[in-house]
């Protein structure tokens, strides 16, 4: 029988029992745990405090695809579903033969006839695609284009157009059609007024 006296170190334990998962975490492990918890909390608070951004609209980046700034003859009407009725773009008043301009830099992914209409489609950064119709294309698939570059000439005969000619301009993000007018960058002129101080 083993006798233990008060104040003695007690029975010796074998090294096998104090190793591995039975050992309490040391200071370094505890500090790592605290640091990981604090970083998670900071990330959560930062995300919660960040201003909410629209899920569908990026910063404005495009210019008008016609010059001078055209009148909008028909606005964007989003369809209720992927196959529903709607107007997946805007119609802009133009003159027959007027140049259709690239709204932003990108790569031409389609230039030709689609359903009897001349169409140009351009892919842009951020997963956006612009389309221009009806036009006679002056560009080819694969062309790198710059903002304001002529893409083709506008043709008369767009359905529902109430003026001599209309350019139908559409913007898509992935498979979702979005309102092109929300992507137009507005230039503001800064003028200094005389100071009568």
What's the layout of helices and strands?
Elements: H1 15-18, H2 27-49, E1 72-74, E2 90-94, E3 99-101, E4 106-114, E5 117-124, E6 128-133, E7 135-137, E8 144-145, E9 150-154, E10 165-173, E11 176-178
How does this structure look, described?
The structure is a single chain. With 197 residues, the protein is α+β, with helices and mostly antiparallel strands. Strands 1, 2, 4, 5, 6, 8, 10 and 11 form an eight-stranded antiparallel β-sheet that branches. Strands 3-9-7 form a three-stranded antiparallel β-sheet, with no helix packed on it. A hairpin with a 2-residue loop joins β4 and β5. The radius of gyration is 32 Å and the shape is extended.
What is the structure about, briefly put?
The chain is an alpha+beta fold and 197 residues long.
Average predicted confidence as pLDDT: 77
The whole-angstrom Rg is 32 Å
As a percent range, the share of strand residues is 25-35%
Low-confidence stretches: 42-56
The assigned structural class equals: alpha+beta
Helix share bin:
10-25%
Index terms:
about 200 residues, alpha+beta, 8-stranded antiparallel sheet, single chain, 2 helices, 11 strands, 3-stranded antiparallel sheet, about 30% strand
């Amino acid at each position: 029988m083993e006798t233990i006296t008060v104040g003695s170190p007690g029975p010796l334990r074998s090294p096998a029992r104090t190793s591995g998962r039975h050992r309490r975490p040391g200071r370094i492990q505890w500090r790592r745990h605290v640091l990981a918890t604090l970083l998670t909390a900071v990330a959560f608070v930062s995300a919660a405090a960040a201003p909410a951004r629209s899920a569908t609209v990026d910063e404005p980046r495009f210019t008008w695809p016609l010059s001078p700034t055209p009148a909008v003859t028909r606005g964007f009407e989003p369809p209720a579903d992927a196959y529903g009725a709607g107007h997946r773009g805007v119609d802009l008043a133009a003159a027959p033969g007027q140049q259709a301009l690239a709204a932003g830099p990108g790569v031409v992914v389609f230039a030709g006839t689609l359903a009897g209409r001349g169409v140009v489609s351009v892919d842009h950064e951020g997963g956006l695609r612009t389309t221009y119709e009806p036009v006679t294309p002056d560009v080819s698939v694969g062309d790198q284009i710059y903002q304001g570059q002529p893409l083709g000439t506008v043709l008369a005969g767009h359905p529902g157009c109430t003026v001599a000619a209309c350019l139908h301009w559409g913007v898509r993000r992935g498979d979702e059609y979005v309102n092109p007018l929300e992507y137009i960058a507005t230039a503001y002129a800064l003028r200094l007024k005389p100071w009568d101080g």
